[in-house]
Design brief:
The protein has 486 residues and is mainly alpha-helical. 87% of the residues lie in helices and 0% in strands.
């Protein structure tokens, strides 16, 4: 059984990677085109409404998706109960958003937001229709089907958004992109995962799943709100363009910091849930996931800090240069964010949802306070510093939880990650030093030199000192290659 799970995990990682990098690539390319067709104000309008849509989507899921995966023996009655509940709740929440839209537009003092929110809110109902099917595929570690569905939906939605933006639709092009992507995803999930709900609603199933999922919901709501509250604050106290710069910087940063963590996040939770009764196997799996993520993500984020200005100039154009400092600061936060979900999923996998919720309240209160204090003292720069503090504080709280309930001690986790941090920083400083000595004032030439020196130094030192993270990633790559050959 352990070998079968290992094989499924490798396959899941491969297809999850294809899904993640496929959708990421599509979003990246389409965003380059859209950024040149649309304005920072257009992105700012969508950013202002993000907190309302994402929090509502979190409500719709209700933590039941995690509960369905965590529960070992799920019945048709369980699935049907959650399906009807999600659908009912999505309709109610859409009604709330529709009625509240005028108040939201008055809050930001932008009349256009009323109609945008009323139309964009439809995605809540569309997403509710596929939550059960998505989690059925995740539970069975069938990421091949999920990859196909998400890649197709993203291609169609991105193509439509580009056409609409070219035709002058402005912010509505971004709204259409979200609705079309969700619609195609739902249709394909119903066609490719042939499951139908029964006409029943079990109070017993609801209570049983909610006993776990309720705390997951509460934790997710707090996390979602705190992850998006900076958009609300920036939108309220600054102009839409400032929020547009922040939104674009965050999108680009998340492509790097969340690309690999998004892959492991999808696969790690169902896998760790299956290992919850085997403490040593679970610790070993967590450790390998963290080392693999850090070995790739840490140097990547520091590289992006180095090349931020030429990167944004090349990708988005000169009008987006004000987002460079936001992007650099967010990359520092992204180093912690890349490891966030693995530690959280570990706690969820062993059923400690209540403890996770209580700790989430504490860490998010502290993080939100840091953002608000930063806003009061240093305006937008203070908000960005608060975001960095929020990410790293949350990470340290998470590893303390894993240390206590899983057994992977926080000191050991930091010790495992320290060599990666030191080698990454050394490679960064050396590349800066050499470029300064060369003294050529050609922005793209300097960028290529920095990138080349960083990668070469990082890989050589990792090989010479045989960093455990280096060997872990190498073994994963070798296993994937062998699997593809077979």
């Amino acid at each position: 059984m352990q070998e079968n799970l290992k094989a499924k995990t490798v396959s899941g990682m491969i297809w999850s990677a294809l899904q993640r990098f496929g959708t990421m690539g599509i979003s990246f390319v389409s965003n380059i085109v859209l950024a040149r067709l649309l304005t920072p104000d257009d992105y700012g309008c969508i950013g202002m409404l993000a907190i309302f849509i994402t929090v509502s989507n979190t409500f719709v899921d209700g933590g039941f998706g995690s509960a369905l995966i965590q529960k070992k023996d799920v019945t048709q009655k369980d699935y049907s109960t959650i399906f009807w509940w999600n659908l009912f709740l999505s309709v109610v929440l859409y009604g709330v958003l529709f009625i509240s839209a005028p108040a939201v537009s008055r809050f930001y003092n932008i009349p256009l937001l009323e109609s945008v929110l009323q139309v964009q809110g439809v995605v809540l109902i569309i997403n509710a229709l596929n939550i059960v099917q998505t989690n059925q595929l995740r539970k069975s570690i069938n990421f091949k089907r999920l990859a196909t569905i998400y890649i197709v939906s993203h291609i169609v939605a991105a193509a439509l958004a580009i056409v609409l933006a070219y035709m002058g639709w402005g912010v509505w092009a971004l709204v259409a992109q979200q609705i079309v992507a969700s619609s195609i995803t739902s249709i394909m999930l119903w066609v490719m995962n042939r499951w139908m709900p029964s006409l029943c609603f079990s109070v017993e199933s609801f209570k049983q799943l909610f006993s776990f999922g309720g705390f997951v919901l509460a934790s997710n709501l707090i996390n979602t709100f705190c992850n998006n509250v900076q958009g609300l604050l920036i939108g309220k106290f600054f102009n839409p363009a400032t929020l547009g710069y922040y939104t674009q910087a965050r999108k680009l940063e998340e492509i790097a910091s969340h690309s690999l963590s998004g892959i492991t996040d999808q696969v790690s939770y169902p896998v760790l849930s299956k290992l919850q009764s085997n403490k040593y196997a679970m610790i070993s799996a967590i450790r390998k996931l963290l080392l693999s993520l850090a070995f790739i993500t840490f140097p990547l984020m520091l590289i992006l800090v180095l090349v931020a200005e030429p990167l944004i100039l090349f990708i988005y154009g000169e009008k987006w240069l004000p987002c460079v400092p936001y992007f650099q600061i967010l990359c520092v936060a992204g180093m912690a964010g890349s490891l966030y979900s693995v530690n959280m999923r570990s706690i969820e996998a062993i059923g400690k949802s209540k403890e996770m919720f209580l700790v989430t309240v504490i860490k998010r209160f502290v993080g939100l306070s840091a953002i608000v204090i930063g806003l009061m003292l240093y305006d937008i720069k203070g908000v960005m510093i608060g975001i960095v503090f929020n990410y790293w504080f949350s990470y340290f709280v998470n590893i303390t939880m894993v240390s206590k309930y899983v057994g992977y001690k926080w000191k050991q986790q930091l010790k495992d990650l320290l060599p990666i941090v030191l080698v990454s920083l050394f490679a960064m400083l050396l590349s800066l030093f050499i470029v300064k000595i060369i003294g050529v004032n050609l922005i793209y030439f300097n960028t290529l030199i920095k990138l080349f020196i960083f990668v070469v130094v990082y890989m050589i030192i990792s090989y010479i000192f045989r960093l455990e993270a280096y060997k872990t990633v190498l073994n994963i790559v070798i296993n994937i290659i062998k699997r593809n050959k077979n």
